[in-house]
Design brief:
This protein is α/β, with parallel strands linked by helices and 374 residues long. The protein has 13 helices and 18 strands. The strands form 3 sheets. Strands 3, 5, 6, 9, 10, 17 and 18 form a 7-stranded mixed beta sheet that branches. Strands 13-12-11-14-15-16 form a 6-stranded parallel beta sheet, sandwiched between helices. It has a 5-stranded mixed barrel with strand order 1-2-7-8-4. Strand 11 (196-200), helix 7 (204-216) and strand 12 (220-225) form a beta-alpha-beta unit. Helix 6 (177-188) packs across helix 7.
Length: 374
């Protein structure tokens, strides 16, 4: 079938994207679902920094590629071997397909699925195949999803069935921002009620993490960012303290406010400076979590004596250490109870033709979560 899709033909094109148009809206071919695959009509897709990192070249991926990985839609057709979904079902897409058989999957860690990671790096579906084509030549998939398009053929292992009463433009956020942010707090850091939490980087993922800290019963929640408007939003969402990361005394200010540092500090800015700040404001015996994705060349000099003498813990978090089949329904339930107001993170709705303008806003820090609706 012919579909309209946003294609990245070359990484590293300079902004403003509204003028340079790194993403081109084109009509391309989409194959029907094969064994273990599903055709989904995309209803909504969020603009995320992980997409932006491919556009600007910080996360190299094979091109040409249809971007987009945070999405929700409606099942149109199921391929052979798919018996637990049917046309009309509402689904959230997950950007790491899990094979269910490799060692991480067998250990209950599907976010680390080895075949899924290999497929994502290669730009294919979990099967190793590509279902997108332009003029007879293959087009790569982004993280097994490629949601900046009217339709997507994906692995069944990339889909979570959801309650159809949940608006799909809100459901889309659960596939990345919520899984990554809330999961980093609840699953990776394992924040306990009555403790203190610091959140660095208040984009969609960081603010979702803040909401997760509120839901977990944190006593003190410190929000840190460079943008005053985001700090104000964080306060309205439940942050007890807010600090500008550009202030020269931010480390001392946070440590004073928290009585020696936060019990848990979660970093989502994706820069070595942000991670260094996170480490410095974590208290003795505390846990520093990073879910940011800096360029592959980024490194951090770790003070080993400090790590040992203060019994520090440093943890990486990918997709919030989530089990999507378990966690997405849980987080949706919290949202519907009013305990995880994810809808407050939405900055606006866009048409597919406005996608480059949307990424300009995201790159400038002018938006939290913009959603393309179809």
């Amino acid at each position: 079938m012919k579909i309209r899709a946003a294609i990245l033909n070359q990484m590293g094109i300079a902004p403003p994207y509204a003028q340079t148009e790194p993403l081109k809206i084109e009509r391309i071919d989409l194959d029907p679902p094969k064994e273990g695959e599903v055709l989904v009509r995309i209803a909504a897709a969020g603009l995320c920094h992980s997409d932006l990192s491919v556009i600007d070249g910080n996360r190299p991926r094979p091109t040409p590629m249809v971007l987009g990985h945070e999405a929700a839609g409606i099942v149109e057709e199921c391929g052979p071997g798919v018996s637990d979904l049917k046309p009309g079902d509402h689904v959230v897409m997950v950007f790491v397909p899990s094979c269910g058989h490799c060692q991480p999957c067998a250990e209950g860690r599907p976010a680390l699925c080895e075949p899924g990671a290999a497929a994502n790096t290669a730009g294919t579906l979990l099967s190793g195949q590509r279902r997108l084509h332009r003029n007879g030549a293959p087009v790569n998939h982004h993280l097994g999803v490629s949601a900046f398009a009217e339709y997507a053929t994906v692995s069944r292992r990339s889909l979570i069935k959801i309650d159809p009463e949940l608006p799909l433009e809100e459901a889309a956020l659960f596939g990345c921002a919520v899984l990554t942010g809330v999961g980093a707090v609840i699953n990776t850091a394992q924040v306990r009620a009555g403790t203190s939490v610091a959140i660095i980087g208040l984009g969609g993922v960081g603010l979702a993490a803040l909401l997760g800290a509120v839901a977990a019963g944190a006593r003190q929640i410190v929000a840190i960012d460079l943008a005053p408007d985001k700090l104000a939003l964080a306060k309205s969402l439940g942050a007890t303290d807010a600090f500008n990361a550009a202030d020269s005394n931010v480390v001392e200010a946070v440590r004073d406010a928290t009585g020696g540092g936060a019990d848990y500090c979660c970093e989502f800015a994706g820069s070595p400076k942000a991670f260094e700040l996170a480490y410095k404001i974590t208290r003795r015996g505390g846990t520093t979590v990073t879910a940011g994705l800096p360029p592959p060349t980024a490194t951090f000099a770790l003070p080993i004596v400090n790590l040992v003498a203060e019994e520090r813990t440093i943890r990486g978090s990918y997709i919030g250490t989530c089990v999507p089949l378990r966690d997405i329904p849980r987080y949706i339930a919290l949202y519907r109870q009013g305990r995880l107001p994810i809808n407050r993170l939405m900055s606006g709705r866009l048409k597919l033709e406005e996608i480059n303008v949307g990424f300009d806003r995201l790159a400038k820090g002018e938006a939290i979560r913009q959603v393309i609706t179809f």
